[in-house]
Amino acid sequence: MASGNHSRITEFILLGLSADPHVQALLFVLFLMIYLLTLLGNLLIILVIHTDSNLHTPMYFFLSHLSFQDLFYSSVTVPKLLENLLSQRKAISVEGCLAQVFFVFATTGIEACLLSVMAYDRYAAICHPLLYGQVMSKQLCERLVWGSWVVAFLDALMNILALNMDFCDVQTIHHYSCELPSLFPLSCSDVSTNSAMLLCSALLHAIGTCLLIFFSYVRIVSTILSIGSTSGRSKAFSTCSSHLTAVSLFYGSAIFRYLMPTSGSPLELILSIQYSVITPLVNPLIYSWKNKEVKAALRRMTIKYLQCLSTEEI
């Protein structure tokens, strides 16, 4: 990565969230609990959806893939964060850092694509209920999910392959993980091309997915307001409230993080934690808290499990 008069850099130092050992110990416990709850919540959502035939619909098909993506998402950064909170020398190799940059970029893109696909699914269900089964066929649902992964990985791959930076002797990253904007201040070479490419990628990805979500909900709101009964409007709104909450949490932090200048400020760290750590944790809660079908499926699964236990004891 480095050339000319600059010595070759083999690793970076992640400053993390705090230099105080006592605070680090508390943060380790906090983020370990968050990570374990994230794994438990998302695995539970996947298990319930795949075992309960009542949830074998396009909406829950997308939700199960969102939960799988959130497992992947949190596992990209949190394990390394936990390791560094326990170590005195918080180092990461250049190769490991670039790998983390790639997967952070890719998983962020996948999350955005899946949320926009789920908005389109709600549009089809509410605005065209009679044609919903034909429009959202199994083949289309699978293609939309695979398309989300392919587009996000290609986008991340292009940004990584385009990197042509010589790193200076300063190895310190003012962050708890490697993200592409955090590497630019460490470069001794011109990063204007990479910065422009990142900005274009972020804007195209954000604008493309945001426009799909926006226009989907414009049509959804228009359709809901035309429903005569109050109960019908309430039921239609309730099917969208969880998705809108998830969209707001993710986009509100991710867009600002990738568009704001890199400074290592507390706000920058908070935004990164919001979309890469907190969002995967709360998504299962958001989609199950007010969802009667998921709650009913959880009860059925719990009853079956308890019945199996009682049968084994007998």
Walk me through this protein's architecture:
With 314 residues, the chain is mostly helical. Strands 2-1-3 form a 3-stranded mixed β-sheet. The radius of gyration is 22 Å and the shape is globular. 35% of the residues are buried. The chain is built from 10 helices and 3 strands. The longest helix is centred in the middle third of the chain and has 34 residues, at 94-127. It has helices at residues 21-51, 58-86, 94-127, 132-135, 138-161, 180-183, 192-225, 230-259, 266-289, 292-313, and strands at 11-14, 91-93, 172-173.
Q: What does this entry show, briefly?
A:
The protein is 75% helix and 3% strand.
Q: Strand order, biggest sheet?
A: 2-1-3
Number of strands: 3
Largest sheet: 3 strands, mixed
Backbone structural class: mainly alpha
Instruction: State the distance separating the first and last CA atoms.
Output: 65 Å
Q: What's the overall average pLDDT, rounded?
A: 83
Number of helices: 10
InterPro entries: GPCR_Rhodpsn, GPCR_Rhodpsn_7TM, Olfact_rcpt
Pfam family, one: 7tm_4
Subcellular location: Cell membrane
GO molecular function, one term: G protein-coupled receptor activity
